[in-house]
Design goal:
The complex is a heterodimer of chains A (267) and B (247). By secondary structure, chain A is mostly helical. Helices cover 73% and strands 0% of the residues of chain A. Chain A has one domain. The two termini of chain A are 31 Å apart. Chain B is 37% helix and 25% strand. Chain B contains eight helices and ten strands. Chain B is globular. The termini of chain B are far apart. Classes of the chains: A mainly alpha (267), B alpha/beta (247). At the A-B interface, helix 1 and helix 4 of A face helix 1, helix 2 and helix 3 of B.
Chain lengths: 267, 247
């Protein structure tokens, strides 16, 4: 197999994801509505409750809705990462996963291609949210729309890789509901998406450490800083490491010789 | 290459935890051969197919595709295999063509090749007019035909078909059988056709009888009738699967 075969395969997987996405317009709609509800209702309601002091990367006091915008973008990426997981579990139940798995290309490549295809969709949705957020006067400096792109891609990769890993462990579609309870909500709330970590530290030191250990926090912070063309190096390193670990474990999980596929009895 | 068996299985075993589902399975399929893997539900046919397509890895025994060990040369083996799984594997929300393009891409084919070969294969299964229809709109028989067309896109030399006619009407079943037999006869493709439907064996077929994970008999249909001294394939099959249970 040559490079051109890999490229064609990647194009095929991305096209399929894109077609499925277009077929499920409700998915695009809900992906945008979810953070907008937070922005329109939660942020407005908490506007006067939560005070945000001047913290980097901001050099002045900012409204609360500006503070939570990076967290809401990360939320889009998180939900999309879990949708990659849902799509894999659905494909397995519907049988189409087998067609992917009997491709002559290596399994690590197939999974990475699936991940990258999902990230492309995530990034498109994140920019769509940014466009709508202009209605709330939320706009980074003009260059922020460009400098945030690598942060969106890296964060999308991390959450997509987590989704792939979960999909290798989830046996049935019905079990997916627990992902909401045990992955999405804890990751989102135990992070800097809704409140600055110094606030959390004052309230609970343990929760502060949990938030620091949460890779989602680092996705939020990487995005937040990237809007102002600033790199948050610790967050970048954490995200690269987490992506590598999650993807390696996912490839292991899908390896017929070692992973969970082996334990699944034939239907 | 044609001197080597398209598929060679030696001493294949598999278990799920304590439950043994395949035990010492050995047989081969020559190029151009139409071989029926006959067994009741739960005989181990699907597990055998999962091992031969590397969805599961075999820990006992050996699987060779045209002489290549599937564990060592998985990619080259998979390039030569076309599979129709028991469970439908088409994406219902995509059109027939989109499903074919996806499969072609997974095998590294160019869009032009996919277009040309896809059109030819859809034509061969008589569904050219449905190529832009969503799969969801097609009948069960039409979906199976599309799966056959799809598995031929990358020009495999070995077809593995796991209960491809389950749930189909008589006309669709006959079409599928005739189509695959013609491919074997005219294009030298080897086919392993798993089924529990005895009437699909026909007269000119090699048969592997699999029962409770073990091979009970291998040979031409006529030969099995002679060996068991039974008047029909159904009677021969029943005697083969009951023989050892009684003993």
């Amino acid at each position: 197999m040559k490079a051109i075969h890999y490229l064609r395969c990647f194009a095929g997987i991305t096209t399929r994801e894109w077609l499925r996405f277009l077929n499920q317009r409700g998915r695009f709609f809900s992906a945008l509505v979810r953070p907008l509800v937070w922005l329109a209702i939660f942020a407005t309601g908490f506007h006067f409750v939560l005070g945000v002091s001047i913290i980097p990367p901001y050099d002045t006091y900012i409204p609360y809705d500006v503070y939570i915008a990076p967290g809401l973008i990360a939320m889009i990426l998180l939900f999309n990462g879990m949708l990659i997981s849902l799509s894999m579990v659905y494909d397995r139940e519907m049988g189409s996963m087998r067609i992917l798995m009997v491709s002559p290309l290596p399994r690590w490549f197939l999974l990475t291609a699936k991940l990258l295809a999902g990230v492309v969709l995530s990034v498109i949705q994140a920019y769509a949210f940014l466009a709508i957020a202009l209605l709330w006067d939320i706009s980074p400096p003009w260059y922020g729309y460009i400098t945030v792109l690598p942060a969106l891609i890296l964060s999308g990769l991390m959450m997509g890789a987590l989704g792939l890993l979960l999909s290798s462990a989830i046996r049935q579609l019905e079990n997916f509901a627990s992902v909401m309870n045990f992955v999405i909500f804890p990751m989102f709330f135990a992070s800097s998406a809704l409140y600055p970590l110094w606030h959390v530290k004052e309230a609970s030191l343990l929760l502060y450490y949990v938030c620091q250990a949460n890779p989602f926090t680092h996705a939020v912070e990487l995005i937040r800083f990237a809007f102002y063309a600033r790199l948050e190096p610790v967050s970048a390193v954490v995200l690269v490491a987490a992506t590598a670990i999650f993807l390696t474990l996912a490839v292991y999980g899908y390896d017929p010789a070692k992973g969970l596929m082996q334990r699944r009895p034939a239907d | 290459m044609t001197d080597l068996p398209a598929l060679s299985i030696e001493g294949l075993g598999h278990r799920f935890g304590p439950r043994r589902v395949l035990n010492g399975v050995s047989f081969s399929v020559a190029a151009g051969d139409f071989t029926v893997l006959l067994g009741l539900n739960g005989a181990g046919k699907t597990t055998l197919f999962s091992l031969a397509t590397r969805l599961y890895v075999q820990r006992e025994g050996m699987i060779r595709i045209f002489g290549m060990d599937i564990r060592e040369r998985a990619s080259e083996c998979l390039r030569r295999i076309g599979v129709v799984f028991q469970q439908p594997t088409l994406d219902l929300d995509l059109t027939v063509e989109q499903n074919l393009f996806y499969h072609a891409a997974l095998h590294g084919l160019s869009h032009r090749d996919a277009l040309e070969r896809g059109a030819a294969e859809i034509e061969r299964v008589g569904l050219a007019d449905q190529r832009r229809d969503k799969v969801r709109r097609l009948s069960g028989g039409q979906r199976r035909r599309i799966e056959i067309a799809r598995c031929l896109l990358h020009r495999p030399q070995l077809l593995l078909l796991d209960e491809p006619t389950v749930g189909l009407d008589i006309a669709s079943r006959q079409f599928m059988l005739d189509h695959i037999r013609r491919l074997c006869r005219e294009e030298g493709i080897a086919a392993l056709w798993a089924t529990h439907l005895i009437d699909e064996v026909g007269e000119a077929a090699r048969v592997v009888v699999l029962h409770k994970g073990e091979v009970r008999a291998v040979g031409e249909a006529e030969q099995l009738l002679g060996e068991t001294r039974m008047p029909s394939m159904r009677a021969a099959f029943e005697s083969l699967v009951q023989e050892r249970e009684a003993a």
